[in-house]
Amino acid sequence: MRENAKKTAANEARLLKKKAIVDGRIAAATEERGVTILLTGNGKGKSSSGFGTMARAIGHGQKCAVIQFIKGRKETGEQLFFGSHPQVEFHVMGHGFSWETRNPELEKQAAEQAWELAKGLLSNPEVHFILLDEITYMYKYGHLEVDDLLAALAARPAHQNVMMTGRTAPRLLLDSVDTHSKVENERHAFANGVKAQVGIEW
Ligand code: ATP
Ligand code: MG
């Protein structure tokens, strides 16, 4: 019994110590500004995390925008849902880039047009949250210049939050964002022959 009491006291002391550390960090995080978030990796959950975060921002009345730099094959649930939302500006990159057809010239043209839209959003103080979905591939394929993205991110309105996704990203971008999470693939149903499902994959 006495041993148990000792253990409980030690545990409480450890928890208090942990709490003091966390409280200290919370107190030290005083900078108020928007952040850049990058989600990479081969696991499932990057774009859906971007849309989930956008739902949060919408809930708080913020004006949001999405640019999808890779066109999915089908009409996606996210476009059907958010595309008609009054707080959301939703763009899917025009012709060119899809996983099915590859035409480098058309792709580059479409990427440049989408980037023009992105630049406009990144300089618009009314837009609080921007999702640049699958943008990282544009640098991998040489359609856009990462320096242009870094410059636009650095010059954006101070309160604006920007999320970017793609399996891999250029080193310069990885090194410059405020938050970077890598979603690892531990297992995916597809590998065991499960067909892509509406409402899950698109
Ligand atoms: P989601 O949009 O579901 O969050 P994601 O953005 O993380 O997925 P992408 O790399 O953009 O994933 O790939 C897009 C598509 O590929 C989605 O339909 C997703 O379910 C599927 N996918 C993601 N990871 C894997 C994987 N490891 N194996 C097979 N398919 C995957
Ligand atoms: Mg994705």
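^ magnesium ion complex. The beta strands are 36-40, 64-68, 88-92, 129-133, 161-165, 179-182. The longest strand covers residues 36-40.
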